[in-house]
Amino acid sequence: MRSPDLLRHAWAVASKDLLVEFRSRTAILSAAVFVVLVLVVFNFGRDPTAISNVDLAPSILWVTFTFAAILALNRAFQLELENQALDGLLLAPIERSSIYVGKLIANLVFVATIELIGVPLLALFFNVPVLSYLLPLGALIALATIGFVAVGTLFSAMTVRTRFAELLLPVLLLPFMIPPLSWAVLATGRVLAGRPLSEIAGWLNMLAVYDIVFVTLAIFLFPATVNE
Amino acid sequence: MRMLRVGRWITAIGLALLAGVYVRALAFTPIEQSQGLAQKIFYLHVPAAIWAETAMILVGLASIVYLFTKDPRLDRFAASSAEVGTVFCAIVLTTGPIWGKPIWGTWWTWDARLTFTLFLFLLYVGYLLLRSAIPDPAMRARYAAVLGICGMCEVPFIHLSVYMFPTLHPMPIVLQPGRPKLPWSMLSTWLLSLGVFTLLYVGFVVQRYAVSYFREQLEAAGEVGHA
């Protein structure tokens, strides 16, 4: 199959998911409220006189995104379980990989929306100067998010059909999230401290390599998770 | 049945030789100058670590071939290798702190190597949990294969991420470029131990493989639930 078709079909799957989400808005609203709550909880879980906000901000940011992303990822295939919607999707005359890419795009849009809410709130609650570092911070968040959402989308396709889906996904996913997460936390710290970009280039490269490897791997492996 | 017996024999020989490794390491190998007796743990720790990591790579390779051939033997091997790898990882994670307490003064530190082994252990546990959460054998095998391949691909990333942090852990002295920096008296004990751990890995995997086979037969006969 030609690649324009793959992308066109993927977009069809993604826009279906996003339309369902846009019509109901329950998941995104709950996720947004969840982000606010996690940030508020962090405010009480620290001693502002001992550690300065800027030092703690990267950890707060990424722990919040991790939890929010895991909640969001469970949703993608849960949607398809109702009324055997997944069977309908699998019967459609499209490549299995395009279903994965579609789900990946929808999840990325979903998680990006949460992150768009999270970053300004972090700046507001913890008085972190994000405005002057918006571009490198955005690139960093995008690179890290693509990597773990790619793995998460693949795993959620498997875990939804097991018992304890909500618990199993984080257990499987967290060991895979930790490498990109640890690079992202270190790099975010440098960005917020106003260090030159060359200092984080190594981490950005690692994140890009991680993204390429796992997106490719997931595209190849996804058919194995849905074929009967 | 024959396979189970063969596995038991290999394991028994391995365990007997392991006692031999202890004797040789404690009585016939010189004591290291700066670390004293604590260094003896190196003869168990490093071979176990090598096999813990190799087992994950074997799980990944078996999983790749499984997805192409759908041969149930490969799935059984992957499951067995993962379980044995978990045990070896646990050995590394327990012997490490025992050495770390007298030498570093702390049981645990967020050192690069320690963190890596912990990740590997968590990967194994996730793999085994996924297997236990799926009742259907064909689905279990496919899902486990997907996770096994991802796990194998993640190993180099964890390696890279841990080497970007400063480390307290001793640098490799055997598996390093150039000749091993170890006197022959110590190296020979270590090589013996590596051989014994290889034997133990094979013995455990063969036994575990036989058990999975019997379990599948019983499952097919509908006598037990899934593991």
Domains of chain B (count): 1
The succession of helices and strands of chain B, N to C, reads: HHHHHH
Task: Name the shape of chain B in a single word.
Answer: globular
How large a portion of the residues of chain B is in β-strands, by DSSP E? Answer: under 5%
Helical proportion of chain B, percent range: over 70%
| Radius of gyration based on Cα positions of chain A | 18 Å
Could you estimate the helical fraction of the residues of chain A in percent?
over 70%
Return residue spans of chain A where pLDDT drops below 50 for at least 5 consecutive residues: none
Q: Work out the count of structural domains of chain A.
A: 1
The fraction of residues in strands of chain A falls at: under 5%
What oligomerization state is this entry in? heterodimer
Total strands of chain A: 0
What is the overall silhouette of chain A? globular
User: Roughly how many Å apart are the termini of chain B?
Assistant: 20 Å
Which class of secondary structure composition applies to the elements of chain A? mainly alpha
Structural class of chain B: mainly alpha
How would a crystallographer describe the biggest sheet of chain A?
none
Rounded Rg of chain B:
19 Å
- State the end-to-end CA separation of chain A: 21 Å
Overview of this protein structure:
- The complex is a heterodimer of chains A (228) and B (227).
- Chain A is mostly helical.
- Chain A has one domain.
- Chain A is built from 8 helices and no strands.
- In chain A, helix 3 packs across helix 4 and helix 6 packs parallel to helix 8.
- Chain A is globular and about 60 Å long.
- Chain A starts with a helix and ends with a helix.
- The model of chain A has no long low-confidence stretch (mean pLDDT 87).
- Chain B has 227 residues and is an all-alpha fold.
- Chain B has one domain.
- The longest helix of chain B is centred in the last third of the chain and has 38 residues.
- Chain B starts with a helix and ends in a 6-residue tail after the last helix.
- In chain B, 38% of the residues are buried.
